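ok so heres the complex, two chains, lmk if somethin looks off
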Amino acid sequence: MPQHTPDPWNDPNAKPLITFRNVTKKFGEFTAIEDLNIDIYQGEFFALLGPSGCGKTTMMRMLAGFETPTSGLIELDGQDISPIPPNKRSVNMMFQSYALFPHLTVYDNIAFGLKRSDMPKDEIDARVQQMLKLVQIERFAKRKPDQISGGQRQRVALARALAKGPKLLLLDEPLSALDKKLRQQTQFELMDIQEKTGTTFVIVTHDQEEAMTVASRVAVMNDGKLQQVDTPERIYEAPNSAYVADFIGEVNIIEGHATGQGETVKITWAEGQQEIIGTPANPIPNGPVHFLIRPEKVAISSEKPTDRINAIQGKVLDIAYLGNLSTYHVELPGGQIIKAQAANSRRRASLAFTWEDTVWLSWSDIAGVVLAR
Amino acid sequence: MNLRRASLIVVPYLWLMALFLVPFLIVFRIALSDTALAIPPYTPTLELSEGWAGLRDMLSQLDFENFSFLASDDLYWKSYLSSVQIALISTFFCLLIGFPLAYGMSNAPEEWQPTLMLLVILPFWTSFLIRVYSLIGLLSQEGMINQFLGWIGVISEPLEILNTNIAVYIGITYTYLPFMILPIYATLIKLDRSLLEAAEDLGCSRTQAFWMITIPLSKAGIIAGCFLVFIPALGEFVIPSLLGGSQTLMIGKVLFEEFFSNRDWPVASAVAVILLLILIIPIVLYQRNEQRQMEANQ
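and the predicted structre for the whole thing:
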């Protein structure tokens, strides 16, 4: 692995590999990307995450050179890449459809890019063998793409994109055609390969689990704008907006009115209900807020707990049994529904709560996120 | 084996038997006969009343005399050669014009494509003969092309196009162009755009990507189009007789003359049998080659 700090984005002296500066991309009247700024560093595994139509694919196609920004600047290694055509960029792409050449063998597919470069013939062979080995498809080198399975095709596509040793590898929904088991296994292999080669990877995906698993940083996009760029852990635990919190995993969103009390705030959220005590990451002014809390941080019990500062009584409305977890939908007296998750850590134990049971939901003052509305 | 599948296989074979093999055998049998002033104009004929003896009698009188006659008279092999040459050159021009047209069509905006397709097929709505006759009007010395060229001052003397081989090339290329365009278009429209992007991404220029990806992947359409033009062009009769001159030698014309002017059915049949062989042999060779490649891939 090349030497770099584990989190170059926090190092003010680090030089980014890719810089988007005020990039806007319009297709006719439609704005796909709006005034976007981002830095991506050498060695990162960077995920662009968002619903379809959010502009993530457009961003990737601009990096590959298939689209040019309407305005703004994209730099690769400090060099403006807008005038460089795709075949001259040290950027390779793994296509969502894999785009393997059906008339060429696996070997020739991987050698395709190398043959276009000025690499001597014997070196090409060595490099192709190395790639075949990296993705473990040596046995299929002589086959045509339609004679191998989907998972193997995915590996060929990856090997072909990596063969030229690009500075930047783009992956467009690389695992979306695989079934769930194979996808999870391949995610870890992707991370391995990324570490081994030290190449900067930018992955586009709409699958939040995939982005969280593989990426060093995730950019959540919506409507052509970046909502939040951060590590998976911070995206999940410290979302900067209700949109991000809602997009990544499950979350309970409570609207209320905050009043400061030193470190903590008191949130009035429904008439006749006890205020919620929360801790905002940064001091916020008194006023309307969103209180966000993940279901697994809400404890559920039959007796009123004494060790947590927030406790609300409600009635079990629905139970979703997921095997490892159960999600309880609890209706509060005001009609608000809060989801609480409990691990099913014991086998054969019948579920502790059932429909219509009156239960207590509780959490500590730092379990949730408080954001000004 | 279930009956349904058997009948599915049998039906096309019966069809081929009835409409290809049986007529071919009849033609082949006439080719082995001698000409005669009779109805039908050849001997021997099969006397059904004599039963097996009649059949044996007829078979004993058949010979390959007509085929050796074809070999001895240089008119025939010169006509075959000239036909192959004219068909090959016309096929080449069809490909030269047809491929760019098909390529342009497949790259056109999607909403235009049905219209473009219609424009390619549109000539078929007019009778083939009328189209060839109107070519005479265009190509003759007083025709529109000569008048136009004279008017803009490119030529001082009218060009002699009609009644030359050039007119035959123009006629065949014009008539058979749709048969070249359609199969090529059908393969190009299925071509995955991302393959070209992938080729560019891996360092190809647009032109290289075209030669390395588009052309190999449209090979099937190109070959189908070439066969569809070459095969009918080889035996073409109407176009050379209407547009060609006295020096235009094509086997279709020879066949027509043997059959209708000389009323020599046996020689005409022999000419037709040889023509069929000329067509079948390259197709069989090509198919075998394809099959071998497919097997090699597995």
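quick notes: The beta strands of chain B are 34-35, 42-43. thats all i got rn
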